[in-house]
């Protein structure tokens, strides 16, 4: 019997020591359990089902991202019922309830590497370095919904275990991530005191990057319809590219965050 699924949040965390060539179950004890659960789901779906190489699944955005993992409580029989020769129960069945990770999604803060080039083919993450430092602030090429400058956050790596698909689990995760960011719209805004103006790519205070509700996804083309249902619009200007052998498109959505995203 399955109980109501529950969601656990994992904020940005130190993942030093994570070995991308090893499976989630073989990682050091220092790696947070919620993140390992997210990687278990990603291994099942992206690596085993979709054929992405294991070492390409973990990337340098994982440490600075927020992750959500959804669990189902699964009741399993650990010792069966025992009966005597006359059929009388001599020992009751023993069962245990275990929480199983069944889905995950992540939210990557700005800044990002440049938008992928239309028609290009990428493996590992597009233009990604293996450094744990976030990419620098840049002026990107303008697309249909992005002027190349506005900070945007990126939803991605959504995955639901095959046997749990088709019953709205992905929608619950997308809603959880979007509700969280609407409630915490300033969470990713950089601190000028810590970063310094130069590293923010600006010399004037009115150009300090402030998140104004813009969200992006790099959607697998076959899932674009689902992202449309979740409020995203296809960005024609971003074109189509290939990541890990899978066709991708860019999509954007602007969340209403009231006056909290107004530039100072
Ligand atoms: C895509 C995925 C996360 C959807 O998970 P799910 O739990 O089955 O999705 P939901 O049940 O919440 O479906 C949400 C909506 O999208 C639609 N949908 C789901 N998958 C779809 C697909 N592949 N194509 C078109 N529509 C789809 C559903 O019909 C549903 O619409 P509704 O709300 O109007 O009924 C899941 O199929 C998956 O893990 N796929 C493999 C990994 C992957 O491709 N990730 C996407 C990377 S961009």
Automatic annotation (TrEMBL):
Q: In which pathway does it act?
A: Nucleotide-sugar biosynthesis; UDP-N-acetyl-alpha-D-glucosamine biosynthesis; N-acetyl-alpha-D-glucosamine 1-phosphate from alpha-D-glucosamine 6-phosphate (route I): step 1/2
Which keywords does this Swiss-Prot/TrEMBL entry list? Acyltransferase, Transferase
Which intervals of the chain form a coiled coil?
A: none
Listed under catalytic activity are: D-glucosamine 6-phosphate + acetyl-CoA = N-acetyl-D-glucosamine 6-phosphate + CoA + H(+)
Does the UniProt entry include the keyword Acyltransferase?
yes
Q: Which residues form the N-acetyltransferase domain?
A: 89-256
Write out the GO biological process terms: UDP-N-acetylglucosamine biosynthetic process
Entry EC number(s)? 2.3.1.4
Which GO MF terms does the UniProt record name?
glucosamine 6-phosphate N-acetyltransferase activity
| Broad enzyme group | transferase
Q: Which family does it belong to?
A: Belongs to the acetyltransferase family. GNA1 subfamily.
The protein, known as: Glucosamine 6-phosphate N-acetyltransferase
- Origin species: Lachnellula subtilissima
């Amino acid at each position: 019997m399955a109980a109501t699924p529950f969601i656990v949040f994992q904020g940005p965390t130190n993942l030093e020591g994570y070995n991308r060539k090893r499976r989630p179950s073989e990682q050091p004890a220092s790696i947070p359990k919620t993140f390992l659960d997210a990687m278990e789901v990603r291994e099942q779906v992206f690596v085993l089902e979709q054929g992405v190489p294991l070492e390409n699944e973990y990337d340098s955005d994982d440490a600075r991202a927020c992750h959500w993992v959804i669990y189902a409580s699964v009741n399993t029989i650990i010792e069966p019922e025992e009966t005597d020769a006359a059929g009388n129960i001599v020992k009751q069945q023993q069962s245990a309830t275990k929480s199983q990770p069944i889905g995950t999604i992540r939210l990557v803060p700005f800044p990002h590497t440049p938008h992928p080039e239309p028609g290009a083919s990428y493996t590992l993450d597009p233009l990604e370095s293996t450094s744990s430092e976030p990419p620098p602030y840049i002026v990107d090429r303008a697309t249909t919904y992005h002027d190349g400058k506005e900070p945007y956050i990126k939803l991605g790596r959504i995955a639901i275990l095959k046997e749990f698909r088709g019953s709205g689990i992905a929608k619950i995760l997308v809603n959880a991530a979007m509700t969280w960011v609407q409630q915490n719209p300033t969470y990713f805004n950089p601190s000028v005191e810590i970063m310094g103006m130069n590293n923010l790519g600006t010399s004037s205070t009115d150009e300090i990057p402030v998140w104004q509700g813009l969200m992006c996804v790099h959607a697998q083309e076959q899932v674009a319809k689902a992202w449309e249902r979740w409020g995203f619009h296809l960005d024609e200007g971003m074109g189509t590219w290939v990541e890990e052998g899978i066709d991708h498109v860019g999509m954007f959505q602007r969340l209403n965050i009231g006056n909290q995203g107004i530039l100072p």
